C-alpha cells in the first residue's frame, strides 16, 4: 500500500486518511492560468476553479477498464475500516488548499480568482476508483450539502444496492455506460466482481426513481464501442436520464499502454453518434465542447446545477 501511495503522490495526488484522495483537476488549472473552464461549466454552470476533485476509494474499484487513464495498480473490491465522512471532506479541502498554494504568486493567476479557488463550492466525487464502494457515501454528501456545496457522483453502476439505500443523494449522478452489450463490456471494462453487467442494468432500472439529476455518460472508444446506437438506446431507455453525454476516449495517461491513438474518435464522430442516439430517444444536442470531444443530449430540462 505504501508503494501505491508513493506512486500516486508522485503523480500529484494528495492521499487523505486510509482510502481517499484529492487532486487538482486539469481544468481547474486551465481556469486559473488561462481562464478556460471545463465542459461541465459549459453544460451545467460549474465554476471549474472552485471544484474539488476527489475520491473516497482511491485504491478500490470493481473494474479495470482498458480505456482508463488513471493508475490501476490495485485490485481491492471491498472497502473496510472506513474513515468518517466529515474527516474526509475536511481533509480534502485542506489538501486542495495546500495544492493551490503555489498558484498565488503566479502572474497569470488573478488573486481574486485564487482566493475563490481556496473556498471550493463543488465536489466532484469521481477522481479514480469506484466511489460507491465507500459505505458512508450518503453521509458524505450530507456533509457537503451542509457546507452549501453542490455535488457530482461518477459511478460505473456496479453497486446498485448502495444507490438504493442512500438517504442523501448527490445533486447529480453520472452512470458511465461504456459498452452496448455484455460481450463488449467484459472485454473492455474487465469487471472484477461477478454479475457486474446484471448489476449495471439494475442500476439503470433504478435510476429514474432517484430524486436527483441523472446523466448517462457513454465513453466511446473507436474500434471498441463506438456505434451500436440502437443497443445503447435500449439501455438508456431503462434509465430515462435527464441528460446523456457521449464523450470520446482520450489517448492519455496509462491508457496508452493498452490503446492506440487511432482508438480516439474525433469530435465529429462523437457528434454523429450523439445525433443518431438522440433521434432514437427523443433527445437533442443542447451543448458541445470540441476540446473535450463531448456533446450534451437533453430534453429541455434545467441545466444549471443548484445547491
* Relative helix content: 25-40%
N- to C-terminal distance:
36 Å
Structural class: alpha/beta
Average predicted local confidence, pLDDT = 94
For the biggest sheet, the summary is:
10 strands, mixed
Radius of gyration equals 18 Å
Second rung of CATH, namely the architecture: Alpha-Beta Barrel
Strand order of the largest sheet: 1-2-3-4-5-6-7-8-10-9
CATH class membership: Alpha Beta
Residue ranges: pLDDT <50 for 5 or more in a row? none
- Provide the succession of SSEs: HEEHHEHHEHEHEHHEHEHEE
Shape type: globular
Beta-sheet strand percentage?
Answer: 15-25%
Total of DSSP H or I helical runs spanning 4+ residues: 11
CATH topology name, in short, is: TIM Barrel
Number of strands: 10
Can you give me a brief rundown of this structure?
The chain is an alpha/beta fold. It is built from eleven helices and ten strands. It has a single domain, classed as TIM Barrel, CATH 3.20.20.70.
Amino acid at each position: 500500500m505504501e508503494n501505491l501511495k508513493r506512486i500516486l503522490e508522485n503523480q500529484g495526488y494528495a492521499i487523505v486518511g486510509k482510502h481517499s484522495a484529492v487532486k487538482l483537476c486539469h481544468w481547474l488549472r486551465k481556469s486559473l492560468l488561462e481562464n478556460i473552464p471545463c465542459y461541465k461549466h459549459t453544460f451545467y454552470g460549474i465554476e471549474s476553479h472552485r471544484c474539488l476533485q476527489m475520491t473516497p476509494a482511491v485504491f478500490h474499484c470493481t473494474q479495470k477498464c482498458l480505456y482508463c487513464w488513471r493508475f490501476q495498480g490495485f485490485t481491492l473490491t471491498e472497502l473496510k475500516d472506513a474513515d468518517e465522512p466529515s474527516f474526509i471532506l475536511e481533509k480534502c479541502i485542506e489538501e486542495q488548499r495546500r495544492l493551490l498554494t503555489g498558484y498565488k504568486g503566479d502572474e497569470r493567476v488573478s488573486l481574486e480568482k485564487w482566493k475563490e479557488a481556496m473556498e471550493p463550492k463543488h465536489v466532484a466525487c469521481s477522481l479514480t476508483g469506484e466511489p460507491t464502494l465507500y459505505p458512508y457515501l450518503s453521509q458524505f454528501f450530507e456533509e457537503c450539502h451542509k457546507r452549501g456545496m453542490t455535488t457530482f457522483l461518477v459511478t460505473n453502476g456496479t453497486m446498485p444496492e448502495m444507490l438504493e439505500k442512500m438517504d442523501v443523494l448527490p445533486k447529480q449522478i453520472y452512470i458511465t455506460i461504456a459498452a452496448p452489450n455484455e460481450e463488449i463490456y467484459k472485454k473492455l471494462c474487465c469487471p472484477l466482481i461477478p454479475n457486474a453487467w446484471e448489476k449495471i442494468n439494475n442500476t439503470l432500472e433504478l435510476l429514474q426513481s432517484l430524486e436527483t439529476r441523472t446523466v448517462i455518460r457513454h465513453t466511446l472508444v473507436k474500434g471498441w464501442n463506438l456505434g451500436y446506437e440502437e443497443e445503447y438506446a435500449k439501455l438508456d431507455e431503462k434509465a430515462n436520464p435527464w441528460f446523456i453525454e457521449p464523450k470520446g476516449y482520450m489517448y492519455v495517461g496509462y491508457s496508452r499502454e493498452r490503446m492506440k491513438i487511432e482508438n480516439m474518435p474525433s469530435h465529429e464522430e462523437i457528434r454523429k453518434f450523439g445525433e443518431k442516439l438522440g433521434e432514437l430517444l427523443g433527445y437533442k444536442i443542447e451543448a458541445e465542447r470540441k476540446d473535450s470531444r463531448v456533446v450534451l443530449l437533453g430534453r429541455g430540462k434545467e441545466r444549471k446545477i443548484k445547491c
